[in-house]
Write a structure and sequence with these properties.
single chain; 2 strands; 8% strand; globular
Length: 104
């Protein structure tokens, strides 16, 4: 049985993790999803932290990710963003842990 996982922009940022998760999606164990906005954020984050990286290489990586994982692009969600309330109060399962005293 497979499940769906949305890869946020921080997930495909390290190349080794990106490669692993794309390959995992190709096995069919999970259905990987991301949006164009997530990929935009990934590219911009990499360029911010590694300005020496050529943008065209990142755009090629983006293209290859989309070609490697069938039906990966999520679209039509934009209208839902305004109605989101985070964190979702219906999924809270416990109260936050008590704060710890500062070390001496």
């Amino acid at each position: 049985m497979s499940f769906t996982a949305v890869y946020d922009a921080c997930v495909p940022y390290p190349p080794s993790v990106r490669d692993l998760l794309v390959r995992l999606a190709q096995t069919g164990l999970l259905a990987a999803r991301w949006s164009a906005a997530i990929l935009d954020e990934m590219v911009e984050s990499i360029l911010e932290h590694q300005p020496e990286v050529d943008r065209s290489r990142l755009e090629r990586t983006r293209q290859l990710m989309c070609e490697a994982v069938r039906d990966c692009l999520v679209t039509g969600y934009e209208g839902l963003i305004e109605s989101l309330e985070l964190p979702d109060p219906t999924t809270a399962t416990s109260s936050p842990p008590p704060s710890e005293p500062a070390p001496r």
